[in-house]
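Internal ticket #5521
Category: modeling
Description: The requester needs a full-assembly model to guide mutagenesis choices. All entity lines are attached below as received. Residue total reported by intake: 786.
Assigned to: D.W.
Attached entities:
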Amino acid sequence: VPSPTTHELGVLLATLVVVLLAAKLAGEAAERLGQTAVLGELLAGVLIGPSALNLVHESEVLHFLAEIGVILLLFEIGLHSDLDELITAGVQATAVAVVGVAAPFLLGFGLARAWDFPTLTAVFVGATLTATSVGITARVLADLGRLEDVSARIILGAAVIDDILGLIILALVSGLARTGQFSVPVLLWTLLTSVAFLALALVLGVRLAPWLFRWITRMRVRGVLIVYAVAFCLMLATISERLGLATIIGAFAAGLVLAKTDERAHIQELLHPTADLFVPVFFVTIGLKVQLGVFNPAQAGAGPLLLFTGLLAVAAVAGKLVSGLAIYQRGVARLPVGVGMIPRGEVGLIFAGLGLTAGLGGPRLYASLVAVVMLSTFIVPVWLRALYRKERA
Amino acid sequence: VPSPTTHELGVLLATLVVVLLAAKLAGEAAERLGQTAVLGELLAGVLIGPSALNLVHESEVLHFLAEIGVILLLFEIGLHSDLDELITAGVQATAVAVVGVAAPFLLGFGLARAWDFPTLTAVFVGATLTATSVGITARVLADLGRLEDVSARIILGAAVIDDILGLIILALVSGLARTGQFSVPVLLWTLLTSVAFLALALVLGVRLAPWLFRWITRMRVRGVLIVYAVAFCLMLATISERLGLATIIGAFAAGLVLAKTDERAHIQELLHPTADLFVPVFFVTIGLKVQLGVFNPAQAGAGPLLLFTGLLAVAAVAGKLVSGLAIYQRGVARLPVGVGMIPRGEVGLIFAGLGLTAGLGGPRLYASLVAVVMLSTFIVPVWLRALYRKERA
């Protein structure tokens, strides 16, 4: 039985204490300095991680707690969202998503080709820049109390569609790497399963959940509502993951569905403290992954690598900013949507890892791609906050 | 970086879904059948575990979530307890604890000697029967709404003292197994550190925590109160674990300390849904460990093993029941206290594992000891509930 020794248990508990305390202290400092709390949590991760104080190391348990954190975050955001309004924003969101996938792909591909990387490697570089990670933006919008804005709905909708597009690109690119050719059936199957899952989850969920939760609230045992709500969320997250989509898509869908039940307000209230505990673990863990050593200019060959990384970062930012131009609705600011689409996250890191495993580009290109993903994640809280502050002034 | 693959992530999420759903369904069934929910959760663990449906396997992540569960349970119980009343119950609780350690040790030792086990092995068998696991009893008392009773305070206090006594026996027995002789300095050091930790945690905590938490409530960032309260609890649990005490002793002390702050009610309210989520994971995981195959009478040599196990179980139950006779206060029922001391848990399993590793007794004796620990855990919810029901009638 793989039971942890008491020593491992002590280390894991101590890790969790350090992560929680660092998250809240840094979050508080960030807010007092006029930034959002999430920026503090990201920096707290860098500070306590291997690059600086080396207090905390990544582990399977920490990764799992972080995953629970981002799942609960998107569940909570789903609970606060209105499915009908999201559907209304659908066409607009699709336009933003398509531009926001195509533009960074083309920019990344072009830059890598100009840097004399082979075509297949260039495809991987382009693909790495495509997928928006909605966690950061959603958290910043929540911190600023702007989740109900039209632009927030467009960003959330676009991020979901983005994930489906990213999945198709992933299927395409992994097939390319393995066989050297496209597989149309695989592509169609991927598209079909992901769209069918979302449609089924939402259509069936909205019909069945209110009935299911009325039955659950008649149960006597302590804690049924929170346990069943979270189990429902984790179930959709698991199915979503099995289909190759991100877990957070399923969690977001679960939130949208339960928002349609009579228990919405009650579930929100019960979920709040649990989310408070786990969400910071996710953001601190992102910070932990940053390896400051990669940016060290004293290392051999660091100059060209830094230049390439810088240009790639510009491509990554510009490509998503352009997606804001796909806004045709009146009265919706384009810049916040473009900035909100910038963060890349786990999916970008998965692409980069696939490329590394397939022997495309090697560890230096990998380090460069990871740095760009990190950078895109770190600038958004500052930028978005500044935009909204300016707008209010 | 030991990051879980997406497949492992999916399995872990699915495991958690099954554990949560099974816990609440079985808990509800148990309550409707007039039993406490915790019995349903234990049986749910057996049912979904390797012995029956084989839906869920133990893993490091599940063990950690279970540990968080029992830590939050004792933290919550500490928050609902009154330190002054616990100290008042101190002498009485010590009497119960001493009898409740000595009697099962002597009975277990005597039985093992009568069964022709060597003296050192018999010491291990006796030691395995000593430590009360307060989780089950505390949960049953909470389910029945009897946590405020005098007898509940005596049981909780006795369990804490029990753990310190168990620690001393553990130091004694491991020294015996390693060197063949007692080490008085190690014994004294163990006693000193554990008593000093509890005294320091409680005395300093009660003075510093109210000041600390008044400062924390002036912070602006979301979720500070729940995060700092849980971090405080995990910190004391970690220190407790590092000193060789069970994590739950630190968690219980943290609850007692925070019960003295102005934020007590607020922390209780915020902690409630999080505890609802994690506590069942602990009890389901205990059920998972049960290997029904051990009891299979068709196996060779199962007859004598079953007989020995049965007699050992009687010794385990009788030894703790006797501890109720140490009640000298008027108006306190002896039987509920004795029954409440019966459950053995993690500490008993640690003793048994130590004996196995040291080559004392072998796998059959180990299976027997584990079965006794399990049995002692499973009978208490039924017995205690029946006692309180009879008392009310």
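Resolution: model delivered.
Comment from assignee: The mean pLDDT of chain B is 86.
Ticket closed.
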